[in-house]
């Protein structure tokens, strides 16, 4: 199939990458796994064996009028340990390479079908100015989204940082979550070629 660029020229792309049927279960699994992998998993609490104190019996068993107690580290005490204490853990989910690539193909194909994927000749600026970036975006009829280049232009990176909802990146930095959430995805011809080398 062919994709039209902003200048009116056309480039040939692989049907396997940009004309794949959308698989919601596959995309959901990959997106969920990606978000799970970003979790820190550093939550930690102390068990009754780890809190301070609890070495001796607070008071004798009978005759005080208080409830019997054997240790100050009991979970029912305010300063006691946690019964089922949370410990550092990894939330990573295994996703095969073929599954990940298949989900990326499905997402890119769906972006194209929904007219959310815009192909341009290049994404470059002469100076790192936000005003220049706004003018560039207005020419593409884009307010917010992702700018994907084969090699990220430093001026584009600096000019896009001050615009809410706009992110500039190279092909190596794209991920399924960013693509799914983006209003528009603007890709240079060089980025399209690199993606095809990766996914075709």
Describe the protein's topology.
Elements (H helix, E strand, L loop, with lengths): L1 E3 L5 E3 L2 H4 L5 H14 L59 H17 L3 E4 L9 H11 L4 E5 L4 H7 L5 E5 L5 H6 L3 E4 H11 L1
Parallel strand pairs: 3-6, 4-5, 4-6
Antiparallel strand pairs: 1-2
Walk me through the structure.
With 200 residues, the protein is of the alpha/beta class. The chain has 2 domains: 2-41 and 93-199, Ribosomal protein L4/L1 (Ribosomal Protein L4, Chain: A); 44-87, no CATH class. Helix content is 35%, strand content 12%. It contains 7 helices and 6 strands, in the order E-E-H-H-H-E-H-E-H-E-H-E-H. It has helices spanning 15-18, 24-37, 97-113, 130-140, 154-160, 176-181, 189-199, and strands at 2-4, 10-12, 117-120, 145-149, 166-170, 185-188. The chain has a 4-stranded parallel beta sheet with strand order 3-6-4-5. It has a two-stranded antiparallel sheet with strand order 1-2. The longest helix has 17 residues, at 97-113.
Q: Please, what is the CATH homologous superfamily of the largest domain?
A: Ribosomal protein L4/L1
- Give the overall shape, derived from the CA principal axes: elongated
Q: What is the CATH topology assignment of the largest domain?
A: Ribosomal Protein L4, Chain: A
**What oligomerization state is this entry in?**
single chain
Q: Radius of gyration from the CA trace?
A: 27 Å
Distance between the termini: 13 Å
Instruction: Please list the strands of the largest sheet in the order they lie side by side.
Output: 3-6-4-5
How would a textbook summarize the main sheet?
4 strands, parallel
Q: What is the CATH class designation of the largest domain?
A: Alpha Beta
Task: Give the uncertain stretches in residue-range form.
Answer: none
Our count of domains comes out at 2
Class per helix and strand makeup: alpha/beta
How much of the residues is beta strand, in percent?
A: 5-15%
Instruction: Write the H/E string, N to C.
Output: EEHHHEHEHEHEH
Q: In which range does the helix fraction lie?
A: 25-40%
Task: Give the strand tally.
Answer: 6
The residue-averaged pLDDT reads 93
CATH architecture of the largest domain: 3-Layer(aba) Sandwich
How many helices? The count is 7
């Amino acid at each position: 199939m062919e994709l039209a660029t902003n200048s009116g020229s056309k480039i040939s792309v692989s049907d396997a990458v940009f004309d794949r049927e959308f698989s919601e279960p596959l995309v959901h699994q990959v997106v969920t796994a990606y978000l799970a992998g970003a979790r820190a998993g550093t939550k930690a609490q102390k068990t009754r064996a780890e809190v301070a104190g609890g070495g001796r019996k607070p008071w004798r068993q009978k005759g005080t009028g208080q409830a019997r107690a054997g240790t100050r580290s009991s979970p029912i005490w305010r300063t006691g340990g946690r019964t089922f204490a949370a410990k550092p853990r990894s939330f990573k989910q295994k996703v095969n390479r073929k599954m990940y690539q298949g989900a990326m193909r499905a997402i890119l194909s769906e972006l194209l079908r929904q007219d959310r994927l815009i192909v341009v000749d290049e994404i470059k600026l002469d100076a790192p100015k936000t005003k220049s970036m706004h003018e560039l975006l207005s020419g593409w009829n884009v307010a917010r989204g992702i700018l994907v280049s084969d090699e990220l232009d430093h001026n584009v990176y600096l000019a896009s940082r001050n615009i809410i909802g706009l992110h500039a990146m190279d092909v190596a930095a794209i991920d399924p979550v960013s693509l799914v959430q983006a209003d528009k995805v603007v890709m240079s011809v060089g980025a399209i070629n690199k993606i095809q080398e990766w996914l075709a």
